[in-house]
Amino acid sequence: MWLTSKLKQVVMALKPGVVTLKYPLEPRPVPSAYRGQPSWDHHKCIGCGGCAAHCPARTIMTRDICQEIRIMVYDGSRCTYCGRCADVCPEDAITMTDKFELATENKADITLTMELFMATCKRCGRCYEHETRNAIDRMSLKGYRYDNLEVRAVIPVSTEHLDAELLEKTEKYKRPEKIGE
Ligand code: SF4
Ligand code: SF4
Asked: Could you tell me if residue 86 is inside a domain?
């Protein structure tokens, strides 16, 4: 009786065949519209900061080192792959890729840093508003945010001022024409 019952169980288990996936030995294509690791095209990015402002995980940081250069850092360790950054980007510079095997011991593997050339307004020097009323003060502030890139912390309102010496050094800065230049 016991044996018959066990044999029945074996037959039942064998009937559907193998139902588990052979992943990772046989990788499966992800579904269309899958949201994996976001990827930035720095040639399209205008540095508006929209992705940084809307990222719910606060994982995109921005810092202006002078009037012309904005650094943007994506720290993938906090990314939830929600795709909000790609949705809000006005230049379609962000693509949600199908990459999901992102486990790593080195945070640098999932960190992206972009150095962007920012065209400045010929009249005022800066094109965006700050929470200060003095126009002269506004011109010398480092962007709308001045995030702490070292500890990956968002600082909502910049209180840091541009470094006149650094600004002079970067006057000859030219945006790279090709990736990797
Ligand atoms: S996918 Fe979501 S969490 Fe990740 S960087 Fe974009 S907005 Fe932030
Ligand atoms: S929203 Fe798009 S254009 Fe604006 S900073 Fe982000 S990637 Fe660049």
From this structure: yes
